[in-house]
């Protein structure tokens, strides 16, 4: 196989896995906590 | 595999749902502050969702995928910089902390407080010009994505673009920022799910080994190392760090989120969290572009390769979910951008010019009405520009340089104003004019984007210093003395 840039392929592999995991994790947290903030906003107005 | 009834149902249900929520949010709207900066009441997680959703559109996925297709894994450097710089801005509070403390609504508003009304108007004109030209390419790219993925014949592209524009115009004009942040939340969740699904499909169906092999075979080491790839190198890296710092602090739609937070401290936290999302926002779509290279080969159209791959790859139901997610991304970005650029026209050009003529301050209701008319004007222009303008190089660089028209000068004048006591009006004018002039090389002289981008930021900074030193001393205005 031709060159894979030496240090760069493992570096990008770790960066990609890390960023993907963080992206998915924050999506879950924001979905739950942000949803609660939206509900509180609507409730405040209803009062 | 075509777009099935199940896919169509998912997309229509999603659009109807978000529209209903956007209209319901209209009840929360009471004045111009609610309309433009959501009454400055956003908490951490809603702030993160709305900031991430605003800056992540179908156009984002398309230009990052194009970079991945054209330059392989080396493109990841761009995604890495965008995330790391944003985390740094959140950590230090550079500019954003002071901006939020000043309780502004737009970036040029700061220029009137610090410098003069005339400079605010000039900045408003440059911000609106660069911002609208930047947004001008969105519709064509988004339309192409949807047409390819849904299997609609290409002759309906213009119709698809118009439909996208009308839907986003509807709920931007009706609800303003409060509607946008609430629909942004739904859209953030939908676009994140779409991103995760597509990434899993690319790795599962195309395979990591095939992607590495395709890049290695087509580009060799340059497909992995951003230092040896001719598109990148150290010059590009330094320019991107400066550019992303300017985007995160002075870009109108991002700044509007900063100004919408409950407190300056909270705006720092929001940037730190969103920076983590930005790492994936950059790298994951680049991986889709690399997957397209592995499947379609190097001769495919670089811009349309990613949606073409997804049209082949995704099954029924999944395709509907992804199109809904991408529509979500499109709506959140375009509605915020429409609001952002039209607010510049109403707040920073029309308003100050009226005051200069000695006319009375406009009521909140009239300001909202002017904003809505500006929304329609901007929409018509970007539809025309999308159809008329032909893109020659990578979309990412076009977007960078249209933004640089105003970001270079704004960044220099904001840093000068906030962190340098001697900064004065002459420096502010010089920075704005020199920064805009620096981009001429890219648009009219075919200079490489890195040179032109560097020139714009360098000229703006030099002009700020020289203009200030030649312009003499000036006592800062009372309102922002604490930050002068």
Distance between the termini of chain A: 67 Å
Low-confidence stretches of chain A: none
Q: Low-confidence parts of chain B lasting 5 or more residues at pLDDT below 50?
A: 478-484
Mean pLDDT of chain B: 85
Multimeric status of the protein: heterodimer
Briefly, what CATH class of chain B?
A: Mainly Alpha
Radius of gyration of chain A: 20 Å
Account of the protein in words:
The complex is a heterodimer of chains A (47) and B (484). Chain A has one helix at 8-46. With 47 residues, chain A is mainly alpha-helical. Chain A has a domain at 22-47. The longest helix of chain A has 39 residues, at 8-46. Chain A is rod-shaped. In chain A, 30% of the residues are buried. Helix content of chain B is 78%, strand content 0%. Chain B has 21 helices and no strands. In chain B, helix 3 crosses helix 10 (157-206). The model of chain B is unreliable at 478-484 (pLDDT under 50).
Keywords:
heterodimer, A: 47 residues, 0% strand, rod-shaped, B: 484 residues, mainly alpha, Sodium/glucose cotransporter, globular, disordered C terminus
